[in-house]
Design a protein that fits this description.
The model has no long low-confidence stretch (mean pLDDT about 85). By secondary structure, the protein is mainly α. It folds into 2 domains: about 190 residues, no CATH class; about 40 residues. It is built from 9 helices and no strands. It is about 80% helix and about 0% strand.
Length: about 230
């Protein structure tokens, strides 16, 4: 298990670097991050399932410019790890699936707060670098860039370790304590999850001509989700 956590920390750190500081290859998106965690912890499909729902929910919340959205990468790391661990132990039923999606919101906010602190620290590094350059030390530019990347990478690794560990712990110690009534209550909320994501994306739309296509696509997604999770 220790090697799985080490791999989760390494890949999670890369995902966090991709989020703002480097790469920008969309590796940080929930679908990718959750699928990676699911694969590491033993169930590719479970990770992809929660990642697809989180992708829809956070699709319109992007870390662009000074915007500081919820940490969807952290939410995906938590949910992907938890879903895979639950699938291999107690099983990932509709109630557990919905509970993990809802719990991931907490980790998205925790990651957002850490991101805010890291950005402030990175701003301080930039300020010190500018002071060094004004004194004629041009090598400070490279040192400052390296320090900033190291800061983002280190915080990403630590968050990935913490969130994946929390996901496995929730799957092994919290979910098994849910009774039949609690599972039924969470299951009733599951069809609402894709609708929340659809509403988030639609609220950012600006082209009325495509609204019909969008609504049809969301209806198809909603129907497929209900069929797969409840019937399939």
């Amino acid at each position: 298990m220790i090697w799985r956590f080490l791999l989760a920390g390494l890949l999670g750190g890369i995902c966090y670097l991709d989020r703002t500081a480097a790469f920008q290859l969309m590796l940080h998106r929930p679908l990718i991050a959750a699928t990676l965690m699911g694969t590491i912890f033993g169930d590719f499909t479970a990770g992809a399932q929660v990642g697809a729902v989180l992708e829809l929910i956070y699709l319109a919340r992007l870390p662009v410019g000074a915007s500081l959205p919820p940490d969807d990468t952290g939410a995906a790391i938590f949910a992907g790890s938890a879903a895979a661990a639950a699938s291999s132990s107690i099983g990932l039923d509709s109630g557990s699936f919905t509970a993990l999606i809802l719990l991931s919101v907490v980790f998205a906010e925790l990651g957002k707060n850490v991101d805010r602190m890291v950005r402030k620290a990175n701003g301080r590094i930039a300020h010190l670098t500018m002071e060094s350059v004004e004194r004629g030390d041009l090598r400070a530019v490279g040192h400052g860039l390296l320090a900033g990347l190291t800061l983002f990478a280190a915080s990403g690794v630590l968050l990935a370790l913490a969130f994946s560990g929390a996901g496995v712990a929730v799957a092994k110690f919290l979910l098994p304590n849910f009774g039949p009534e609690s599972r039924l209550d969470f299951s009733a909320l599951q069809p609402l999850l894709p609708l929340v994501g659809a509403a988030s994306v639609y609220s950012c739309g600006r082209t009325e001509r495509t609204s019909g296509i969008f609504l049809l696509a969301m209806a198809a997604t909603f129907g497929a989700t209900v069929f797969y999770r409840w019937v399939g």
